[in-house]
Design goal:
Elements: E1 7-13, H1 17-28, E2 32-39, H2 46-59, E3 67-68, H3 83-86, H4 108-118, E4 123-127, H5 132-140, E5 148-154, H6 169-173, H7 175-184, E6 188-191, H8 193-196, H9 203-210, H10 215-235, H11 245-252, E7 257-262, E8 264-266, E9 277-279, E10 291-297, H12 299-317
Parallel strand pairs: 1-2, 1-4, 2-3, 4-5, 5-6, 6-10
Antiparallel strand pairs: 7-10, 8-9
Helix pairs in contact: 1-2, 1-11, 1-12, 4-5, 5-7, 9-10, 10-12
This protein binds alpha-D-ribofuranose and calcium ion.
């Protein structure tokens, strides 16, 4: 069977424990060509997110993927951060290596723009933090949109929120940014909490990480330990949902997730519901569908994919 051509992606993220696993998955998979990592405020400040991205890639032994610092604040919303989940550094738990390379001199928007212009093929934008950087690109370089194959993002929910009762953190953090991308007409795939809450790092998963005979596996296990303690104390989860790698996994193995095409909107006005994603699964509003929304995850095969990627990276570093 012919080897499929790797999918070129830019990963825009706010690392963040689950973003960190998404970065490792993207780096490890031969089906992904990780062209750039761009950072955004979200789980922590932009400075911490950028430092964390450099540390994660250093841990993975990857110093040739450019990392560019992005937005420090939302488009118009007031800044709210997720340190209450990810800790003071945004990646609390294990000691991380100091970065072995510097961030790009370009901003996130400039690096995305340059990478899109230089690419012979359309690029998939994977967004696992607030949508701010991509929204700023859409506003400043609308001509770039035709070079974007699709946007697959972790955010929103077809059900309840997490940061607020109705809003998931990434969309709550910058709902105007998501609105900008919905308005752009770009192909959108939404991987919301309804999906990612099926991706729980249960004890058997963490044990498989712990039993890996290398630093990367043990670091991932310690990330899950910290992340799990936050999810227990804030939302009474027994095991933490590892949200962000679901986006990358969907690209690597499309059979892992079932989707439904629906009308997607984001609430900008609601006193109690600002940042909520409205997904008209049963077409009650009779608007034209504008997004594919993830519904069902094959969790067992998802974890097999993620753990195999972590193990392959770790063994290559030993
Ligand atoms: O609500 C979960 C999302 O918010 C994840 O992407 C997590 O990393 C945080 O950014
Ligand atoms: Ca994230």
């Amino acid at each position: 069977m012919e080897q499929s051509v790797p999918i070129p992606i830019i990963l825009d993220c706010d690392p963040g424990h689950d973003d960190a696993v998404a970065i490792l998955l993207a780096v490890a998979s031969p089906k992904i060509d990780l062209l750039a990592v761009t950072t955004c405020f979200g789980n922590c400040s932009i400075d911490d997110a950028t430092r964390n991205a450099l540390r994660i890639l250093t841990l993975a032994g990857v110093t040739d993927v450019p990392v560019a610092r992005g937005a420090s604040d939302p488009l118009v919303a007031s800044l709210e951060l997720g340190n209450y989940v990810h800790g003071k550094s945004g990646l609390d738990g294990p000691t991380m290596p100091e970065p072995e390379f510097l961030p790009s001199k370009l901003s996130a928007v400039e690096l995305i723009h340059q990478t899109l212009m230089d690419s012979p093929r359309p690029i998939t934008m994977v967004v696992t933090g607030p949508m701010t950087n991509l929204a700023q690109l859409a506003m400043s370089h609308p001509e770039d949109l035709e070079k974007i194959a699709e946007v697959i993002f972790m955010g929103g929910s077809t059900e309840r929120g997490n940061h607020t009762p109705s809003a998931e953190f990434n969309t709550y953090a910058d709902p105007e940014a998501l609105q900008e991308i919905i308005d752009s007409g770009l192909p959108i795939r939404m991987v919301g909490l309804n999906l990612t809450h099926q991706a729980l790092a249960i004890p058997e998963v963490v044990e498989r990480m712990t039993n890996m005979d290398h630093d990367i596996g043990k670091t991932c296990a310690e990330w899950m330990g910290f992340f799990g303690s936050s999810y227990r104390s804030v939302w009474s989860f027994d095991s933490p949902p590892v949200h962000d790698p679901c986006t990358v996994a969907a690209l690597i193995d499309p059979s892992l997730i079932e989707w439904t095409r629906t009308f997607l909107a984001v609430e900008l006005e609601g006193k109690w519901t600002r940042g909520e994603t409205v997904t008209d699964i049963h077409n009650r509003l009779e608007h034209e569908p504008n997004a594919d929304v993830a519904i069902t995850l094959d969790a067992e095969r998802y974890w097999d994919l993620v753990l195999e990627a972590i193990d392959s990276l770790g063994k290559a570093r030993v």
